[in-house]
């Protein structure tokens, strides 16, 4: 994602856990099923509409080497190094409303639907030992958002290569993986991602002898009975939702969720099943217990949940490219580099079109803080190349790696010019 600014005090509030799931712009809202994001089934244990989310939007898009610029927001901070995230979020959110949000802007509460019709869909039940084989539960710490998230993954190799959705680990600074069948817990590191196709590959530390998922060896078909297995609601228990395939070449557009841009996913398997947040990255099994897809998104608020999965052959092809270290197309290898600043993206919030990249805030204990960058400064050059705005800075950082040294030139809020060398650090997953 992008660079973040950290306004949290030395003693931060306890992280909040929130669910991830993206909503699709169709007859209904389609959401990701990770607890925390909307679009694939991940569970984030803190509301998406928090000041930390607004901060993450700015930080992820600018300071990270692999991020994209997010909508800007003006920071009216408590001090130079500690922006007031509450004011930041409120101002950004009001601007977001004023612009007019496309798609769904509200989601029905528990036991409610958009149609008002009670769901008759079979509820998920605890996964059997066979269904849980090769499945893991993923918990992430979003260190720059003061939040936590949860989702699901699939074991590809006995030494701990894990396939999941990018949105399950997006923004993560720490990843913990629990094997569903044994309860064993491992630390995981990022191998690489394809954010466009919503695929990520992780490697567990010091893992061996793990049971793997079984990949389907024939073609899926419309009407075929399937079961989606995942870490439903981030509850730490694998659940199985039975259903049937309704389309093998579906396209779905996820709605924007606050600072998270919507996206269109093509060639998806569409199916009906009781899929919820936290199921993202989980297995879609056929009646032989073989994986035909990776659960990624689902509708919200309908009597019958319509869900979407990335076909497993497509997900595995991307995983193979990542494992080979092939950073072509939309694949990125490893973690992004981070400077540690949040940057405004539009003139409306203080970002000039040609005068450099205006710093909205600086994260504590980052390279930016170490060289003396402060809120209100304008970054004008990186390694001697002119920076005319947030996009330039993002593009420049995208080509760098954690550990790289960069010469940063900037003008502070008082108009004084400065230059210093910063050593980029590892940023959150983009």
SSE blueprint and pairings:
Layout: E1 16-20, E2 29-32, E3 34-35, E4 42-44, H1 51-62, H2 85-99, E5 125-126, H3 129-132, E6 135-142, E7 147-155, E8 161-164, H4 166-169, E9 174-179, E10 185-194, E11 199-204, E12 225-230, E13 239-253, E14 264-272, E15 283-285, E16 291-300, E17 306-311, H5 312-323, E18 331-333, E19 337-338, E20 341-343, E21 357-362, H6 367-370, E22 378-382, E23 385-386, H7 390-398, E24 405-411, E25 417-423, E26 425-426
Parallel strand pairs: 1-7, 3-4
Antiparallel strand pairs: 1-4, 2-16, 4-7, 5-13, 6-7, 6-9, 7-8, 8-11, 9-10, 10-11, 10-18, 12-13, 12-15, 13-14, 14-17, 15-16, 16-17, 19-26, 20-21, 21-22, 22-23, 22-24, 24-25
Helix pairs in contact: 1-2
Polypeptide structure, described:
This protein has 430 residues and is an alpha+beta fold. Helix content is 14%, strand content 34%. The strands form four sheets. Strands 1, 3, 4, 6, 7, 8, 9, 10, 11 and 18 form a ten-stranded mixed β-sheet that branches. Strands 12-13-14-17-16-15 form a six-stranded antiparallel β-barrel. Helix 1 (51-62) packs across helix 2 (85-99).
Helix-strand makeup class: alpha+beta
Shape, per Cα inertia axes: elongated
Helical stretch tally: 7
Uncertain runs are 1-19, 22-29, 35-86, 99-116, 346-353
How far from one another are the termini? 3 Å
> Main β-sheet, in a few words?
10 strands, mixed
Radius of gyration: 21 Å
Name the average pLDDT.
77
By DSSP, the count of extended strands is 26
Approximate helicity band: 10-25%
Strand residue content: 25-35%
